[in-house]
Write a structure and sequence with these properties.
This protein is of the alpha+beta class and about 650 residues long. It contains 20 helices and 11 strands. The radius of gyration is 27 Å and the shape is globular. Residues about 645-653 have low confidence and may be disordered.
C-alpha cells in the first residue's frame, strides 16, 4: 500500500462523510426527523486527521514517493520545518485549511448538541458540512496533495528558503488560517437565520462569540506575520501593503465592524441588516483572500504558485456574495428595526461611524488590491498600486478610530451631552495634553505622532475607566474583581488597550525611524541615531542544513549581532539575507548584510567594486518602540479570549 493510495483513500473517506452528513441534515429538515450529524462529523474528523497524519509522516520521514514532499522537503530539512512543510505550498495549505475547518465543524456539533433539533442549528451545521466538503473536493481534484512522484529522487528540493529561516512559520499560518476558517461559523448561522426567518432570536450574540474567537486568532496571525516579515525579509518594515497582506486585512476590517455593531442589536435591537450582511461579507472575503493567495493571479512574496483553483474559488466567492445578497433582500421586512438611532451623539451613533470607517476602509483596500487585476484584464498591461495610495486613507482612518475608541465608552445609549462626555474623559484628556506639552518641550515636532499620542492616551484612559468601574461594581456587590474581568465588556476594553499599545508602536516606529547604509572596515565603528555599531569581521557557518557568511557586529559595545547571507541545502540557487535585530522596550536596531567590498565574493552578498576588500556595507534601521506593536498584538489576543466567556456585565456609565 503506497502513501499516495492511502492519502487518496483518507481524502475520499472524509469527503464522503461530509457529503453524507450534509444530506442527512437536509433529510432531517424535510422529514422533521433526528439527524446523525455527530457521527458524520466524527467520521470526517477521523478522515482528515488520517490525511494530515499521512502527509506529516511522509514529510518527517522524507518519503519522496509523494510529489508534494519531493518539492517541499529534503533530507537536510530540520524536523520543525519538515512538520511545517504541510502548509509550505498550495496543496498542503488546503489540507491544513480543511483540517481546521473540520475541527470547527466538530466544535459546532458538540456545542449545540442539546439544540440539534433546532432548525437554525440544523441549517448552520449543514452549511458548515457543505463548505468543508467544498474544500475536500478541491483536494480530491485540482489541489491533490497526494500525487505520486514521477520517477525517483534520492533527495528533495527542500522548502523555500524563506520558509526555513524562522520558526514563526510554525505559528503564523495556522493562526491566520484558524482566523479565516473560524468565520465560517458566523456565516453559517447568518445564512441559517435568513433561511428560517428567525432573525430576531438570540443567535447574533452567539455569532459574536465565534466571531470574536476567529477575529482574535486572525489578529494574532496578522501581527505574527508582520513580525515574521520584519525578521526575515530584510527591509526593516512590518507591513508593505502587499496584496496578500491586504487579503488578510479585509476580513479583519469587516469582522471588527461586526463585533462592535452586534452590541447595538443586543442593547437596542438595531443594525440587523448591518450585522447579518457583515457576517456574510466577512466569510466571503476569506474566500476572496484564498483566491488571491492560491490562484496565482497576484505576484507576492506571500502568494503560492499558479494553479487551476482560480475559477473554482472565484465561483464560490460569487455564489457566496450573490446568495447572501438574495437572502438579505428576501428577509428585508423582517430585518427592519422598529426604532432608529435617536441622536448622532450617542453610543449607537458612534457605532454607526465605526461601521462606516471600517467598511469604507475595507472597500478602499479591496479596490487597491483588485485594481491591477481589473486593469490587466481590460487593457492587457500591468499596473501597481503602492503604499502611498493605502497610507493616504489609512492614516486618517486610524486617527478617527482612535477618537471613536476614546468616545464610545464615555457615551450613553440613546443620547449623550458634551458636558457629561467631558466629565468622563477629563482626567485622561488632561494627561494627554500634558504629555503632548512635555514632548513639545523635548523637541518632538512631528504633528501626526503628537496627534496619535494624544488620542491614544485618551482612548487608554477611557478603557481603564471602564475597567475600574467594573471592579468598583464588583466590590459593591461583594464579588471578586476578577469575576467581572471575564466577559465581553472587560475583554473589549483589554482589546482597546492592546490596540492603543499597538498604535503607539506603529506611530513611533514609522514617524521617527532612521534608515541608512554605512560602510565599515574590520574594527571600525560608527554611530547611527545614537547607536554605536562596530564591525569585527566575518564568520563562516556551515552545517547539515545551510551555509552562511555572517558578520560580527557589536551594538553599543555589548550586544552581539550576526547579520548573514544564507544558502540552504537543496536550494543552492536561492540566497537569502538574514537580518539581525537588537530589540528592547524602547527601540530596535536592525542590521542587514548589504554588500561586501572587493572584486569578487563567495558569500552570495552583493559586491561593491569601489570599496576596499574586507569592508562591508551594513543596512542599519533604528526604530523607536517597535516592540510595542508585538506586545499590543498579544494583549489584543488576550482580550479576545476574555471576551469569549459568557458572563455579561453592564459597563458603568
Amino acid at each position: 500500500m503506497t502513501l499516495s493510495w492511502l492519502g487518496h483513500a483518507t481524502i475520499l473517506f472524509t469527503l464522503t462523510s461530509l457529503v453524507l452528513g450534509a444530506l442527512d441534515l437536509l433529510v432531517s429538515l424535510r422529514r422533521r426527523s433526528l439527524a446523525h450529524s455527530r457521527w458524520f462529523a466524527g467520521g470526517a474528523l477521523l478522515g482528515i486527521l488520517s490525511s494530515a497524519g499521512v502527509m506529516e509522516f511522509a514529510l518527517v520521514s522524507h518519503n519522496f514517493s509523494l510529489a508534494y514532499v519531493a518539492e517541499n522537503n529534503s533530507r537536510f530539512t530540520p524536523l520543525v520545518y519538515s512538520i511545517t512543510g504541510m502548509w509550505s505550498a498550495l496543496e498542503g495549505s488546503i489540507l491544513l485549511w480543511s483540517l481546521l475547518l473540520i475541527f470547527c465543524l466538530v466544535a459546532v456539533v458538540i456545542r449545540y448538541r442539546r439544540e440539534a433539533s433546532d432548525d437554525v442549528v440544523r441549517w448552520a451545521t449543514t452549511i458548515v458540512f457543505a463548505v468543508a466538503a467544498y474544500f475536500l473536493g478541491l483536494m480530491a481534484g485540482p489541489a491533490d496533495p497526494f500525487v505520486a512522484t514521477v520517477g525517483t529522487t534520492s533527495s528533495g528540493a527542500g522548502p523555500n528558503a524563506l520558509l526555513q529561516d524562522n520558526p514563526l512559520v510554525a505559528i503564523h499560518p495556522p493562526l491566520l488560517y484558524l482566523g479565516f476558517v473560524g468565520f465560517t461559523i458566523p456565516f453559517a448561522f447568518a445564512v441559517a437565520m435568513l433561511i428560517t426567518g428567525r432573525v430576531r432570536d438570540r443567535w447574533p450574540l452567539e455569532l459574536r462569540r465565534w466571531t470574536v474567537l476567529s477575529w482574535g486568532a486572525l489578529t494574532l496571525g496578522i501581527v505574527l506575520g508582520a513580525w515574521w516579515s520584519y525578521q526575515v525579509l530584510g527591509w526593516g518594515g512590518f507591513w508593505g501593503w502587499d496584496p496578500v497582506e491586504n487579503a488578510s486585512l479585509l476580513p479583519w476590517l469587516t469582522g471588527t465592524a461586526y463585533i462592535h455593531s452586534v452590541i447595538v442589536q443586543d442593547r437596542r435591537g438595531l443594525f440587523r441588516v448591518w450585522n447579518l450582511s457583515l457576517a456574510l461579507v466577512t466569510f466571503a472575503l476569506t474566500i476572496l483572500g484564498t483566491f488571491f493567495t492560491r490562484s496565482g493571479v497576484l505576484q507576492s512574496v506571500h502568494a503560492f504558485s499558479s494553479s487551476s483553483l482560480g475559477p473554482l474559488l472565484m465561483g464560490f466567492f460569487v455564489l457566496t456574495i450573490g446568495g447572501g445578497a438574495a437572502l438579505v433582500t428576501w428577509r428585508g421586512d423582517d430585518l427592519r428595526s422598529p426604532v432608529g438611532v435617536d441622536h448622532p451623539l450617542s453610543r449607537e451613533g458612534v457605532f454607526v461611524a465605526n461601521n462606516i470607517i471600517f467598511v469604507g476602509f475595507a472597500v478602499v483596500v479591496l479596490l487597491g488590491t483588485a485594481f491591477p487585476l481589473l486593469y490587466e484584464a481590460i487593457n492587457g498591461g500591468q499596473v501597481t498600486v503602492g503604499t502611498p495610495y493605502f497610507a493616504t486613507v489609512a492614516a486618517p482612518a486610524a486617527v478617527v478610530v482612535l477618537a471613536l475608541m476614546a468616545l464610545a465608552p464615555a457615551m450613553s445609549w440613546r443620547r449623550s451631552t458634551w458636558p457629561v462626555i467631558w466629565s468622563r474623559l477629563r482626567t485622561s484628556a488632561w494627561v494627554a495634553i500634558a504629555t503632548v506639552f512635555f514632548l513639545e518641550l523635548a523637541g518632538v515636532r512631528h504633528a501626526v505622532a503628537l496627534a496619535g499620542y494624544f488620542l491614544a492616551i485618551i482612548a487608554a484612559g477611557s478603557a481603564l475607566r471602564t475597567l475600574s468601574g467594573l471592579v468598583r461594581s464588583a466590590r459593591r456587590k461583594q464579588r471578586t474583581p476578577w469575576s467581572v474581568l471575564l466577559g465581553p465588556t472587560a475583554g473589549g476594553m483589554i482589546v482597546h488597550l492592546g490596540v492603543v499599545i499597538l498604535s503607539v508602536g506603529i506611530v513611533s516606529s514609522t514617524s521617527f525611524v532612521t534608515r541608512g547604509e554605512v560602510t565599515l572596515a574590520t574594527g571600525q565603528s560608527t554611530v547611527v541615531a545614537g547607536q554605536t555599531l562596530t564591525f569585527n569581521g566575518f564568520a563562516v557557518v556551515s552545517d547539515a542544513v545551510k551555509n552562511a557568511t555572517e558578520l560580527k557586529v557589536v551594538v553599543n559595545r555589548s550586544q552581539q549581532l550576526r547579520p548573514a547571507i544564507t544558502t540552504f541545502r537543496g536550494r543552492e540557487g536561492q540566497t537569502v539575507g538574514t537580518p539581525a535585530i537588537d530589540s528592547n522596550f524602547w527601540r530596535d536596531v536592525y542590521v542587514t548584510f548589504d554588500a561586501v567590498g572587493g572584486k569578487g565574493s563567495t558569500s552570495g552578498a552583493q559586491v561593491a567594486n569601489n570599496l576596499p576588500a574586507g569592508s562591508v556595507v551594513l543596512g542599519v534601521t533604528v526604530e523607536p518602540q517597535l516592540s510595542w506593536l508585538w506586545i499590543g498584538g498579544i494583549v489584543i489576543a488576550l482580550g479576545s479570549a476574555v471576551t469569549f466567556f459568557r458572563r455579561r456585565e453592564v459597563a458603568p456609565a
